[in-house]
Specification:
190 residues; mainly alpha; two-stranded antiparallel sheet; 7 helices
Length: 190
Amino acid sequence: MPAAAHFYSAGSSGSRRPSPGPSLGKTVPPDPSGKTQNCANPQISGINSPAPTHTDSMENNFIKCGLAGWSAELCYSSLIARTRDHDKRLMGQTSLYMFPIYGMAAAIGPIRQKLCDRSRLLQKSAVCRGGIYTGLIFLTEYCTGWLLRKTGRCPWDYSQAKLNINGLIRLDFAPFWFVLGLFFEHCTAA
């Protein structure tokens, strides 16, 4: 049995020896009471798991924001296909490149914390925070689009839209980014 599939248990002499058991996560040596600790499932070990670290929450928020952004894009592109092309199948589209781009919205949580720590107005005004998030989303969209375009991989081209900047961002998307930014804020709230 691999070493990762062992729990440590205290023997009668107090020494640690591996004992077989289910491996549900990291295992650590026993606490002074002699209970086996399993960090992945506190119900099994009878202890409370440690609070998530900042890195854990950023990783979780990255996944949440990536999935939320993907879902929003699929819904949007499905509705556009329905209204513009009269496609009743509601077929949306996105790109795998969009997951990490939307996932970067995980940074909104720490940004919100810093903004609200420095300004009472920003604590109370969702309109101000939403405006800041809209600007940050435009900046992220432009920069990632520019990098992806350099390698021939940019999944969007807004050149045909009236309010575009270099075909990389559409200013008429500002209301959508405003709402999505506030939604990401909610997703990343601690």
